[in-house]
Amino acid sequence: MRISHRSPRYGSALGMALILALAIMAFMSAHHLIVLFLSVALVMVLLAWHRCRQRNRQLYRRLHHPANHLGSHERLRYDRSEQRFRALLESLPRVAVQGYDRQRRVIYWNAASTQLYGYMPGEVMGCRFEELIIPKDMRESVVRAHQAWINEGVEIPASEIELLHKSGRHVAVFSHHVMLGQHTDNPLMFCVDVDLSVQKQAHRDLEFIQRYDPLTLLPNRDAFIAELDRLLEDRQSAPLAVFFIDIEKFSDINDTLGYEQGNHLLTLVAERLSQYCYTSDLLARFGNDEFVMACTQLDSRRHALQLIDRINSMFEMPFTLAGKPHRIRISQGISLFPDNGEDARSLVHAANVARNRARTPGESRFQIFSHEFHRDLIHQHELLKRLENAIDQDELALHFQPQISRSGRIESMEALLRWFPAGGGMVSPAEFIPLAERFGLMERLGSWSIDALCTQQAVWKTQGLTGYRVDLNLSGEHLRSTAMLEKLEKAIQRHQLSMRDVGIEITENVLVRADETVKAYLQTLYHRGMKIAIDDFGTGYSSLAYLKQFPVTSLKIDRTFVVDAPDNLQDRAILAGIVFIGHRLGLEVIAEGVETSEQLELVNELNVDLVQGFYYFRSMPAERITPLLETQPLFKGHKGPSSSR
């Protein structure tokens, strides 16, 4: 059977169906569009086939009339037409077609129906459809709808429904229906069912991804917030604690062992925390290495402290990563309901603020939220806004602290960034540098410092004050790439300085973790004459192997080893060991933090090359240090004239 320009009635009917489908497209999802097109088109084909079949039956009766002598050719055409149409219905992929008589008995069942519902044609022929694929709670309404269509012409609308498989499980389909011969004694209803299993599973997968973390299978932030709000509605004022937990130095795991092992660690942490939780507790992964837990079995603040200890004890046992044990430390922030918030977002925010406080150097690894934290946070944000404008408002300055040689002369200096707000006073670097590191301002501060240092060195050079190297501290943020080193090199060239006029100080950990391209760039600067010092030596990386691998010219002994060395034999031994190692490697050794005559006597006894500290000078602005460079006085075992202690 064909629909062509020679079948205008059926062609136009199908055309109208397609126009209707296009009109609905704007309101349907992608899989609905495909289903609608297939089902409408197939229904129109069924209608056209039914009309052609009625004509063919009349032709068949005429051909088989005893008075007809046209022969078997027309009969063969009729039979082939029937066969082609049945073959079409049988070959439709994922489109199940069933036919039912007036009593709802099966008269047709194609291969896709077998695949969709599990019944073979021989099992269903003559059976009523409500006994096969209609769920029990729908059977009565479906039978009434079928009768209303036959008797009153009320069509059954196309829709998404769930029908029954032979096994008893539900099958999601988009079902379209057509009634053939409605006004005859033998009306036939054909159902065109398109399998929506793939689309439904994709929808369920999407819903899962929207609510759950695919790695740990824990609820995500949105799901946790919604569930905690629901839980709080029923608690009234019963205590509850929210724990915000993150893994310390998690990025190191990814950097050293790879992301696969990092992900493995996250799943192991999720498993341990899940074992800790009661059934009424909530646990979620918020992202990266952050886990949040709501503990419902709480009766007091003291109980919260006990829970903290229990969680910490869980992490005392090492995790096996890449076949080796690794000890993991965590930071915890805790908020309490109802003291720190009455809804989920407030409690999570408070726990996060406490967690950030716990990560601050010098603080405990856990903190219970207090409103003081909130005040500190507001202060930090206000300070951050002022710091962002400090460069443009000319509030930054470089101060210089001399480094005195064993001969008693100023050999070099360290440039130190200072911030003097317009309102007066000075903001301590210990306060604004961590803030800049946390909120991404180190690049701007570094660029400003480089330009200010090179500008001042150029001024001293025009004044004939040459031979004094000035060292600049570079942080881990500065050495994430070669960009800051490139800026330093260009600034040196722009101000017509030499590589020996400017040095850099880098901590041990920053140097070891630097990217290979950064290390290669440091090698280039080193071979061109730039001095590179390891700052705070002895407080960071535990291996000394890097001293012969990396381009290092100087070691700066951290002040913690200098302060108590005159009276503490252990510190004295460490100090002597560092000096010995440095000299044996051909490195310059600098002692910083020298404040007393006893400390100075000791470092001189150990043959330290340069001394830096309050014993001689505090850091000072360029206009105060320039006279010292001009007169070059000797400083031998006494305080410099500019020092104030």
Automatic annotation (TrEMBL):
The keyword Cell membrane does not apply. It comes from the Bacteria. Residues 380-633 form the EAL domain. InterPro entries: Biofilm_reg_signaling (IPR052155), EAL_dom (IPR001633), EAL_sf (IPR035919), GGDEF_dom (IPR000160), Nucleotide_cyclase (IPR029787), PAS (IPR000014), PAS-like_dom_sf (IPR035965), PAS_fold_3 (IPR013655). Residues 238-371 form the GGDEF domain. Gene3D superfamilies: 3.30.70.270, EAL domain, PAS domain. Pfam families: EAL (PF00563), GGDEF (PF00990), PAS_3 (PF08447). Residues 81-137 form the PAS domain. Coiled coil: none annotated. Keywords: Membrane, Transmembrane, Transmembrane helix. The chain crosses the membrane at residues 12-28. CDD domains: EAL, GGDEF, PAS. This is PAS domain S-box-containing protein/diguanylate cyclase (GGDEF) domain-containing protein.
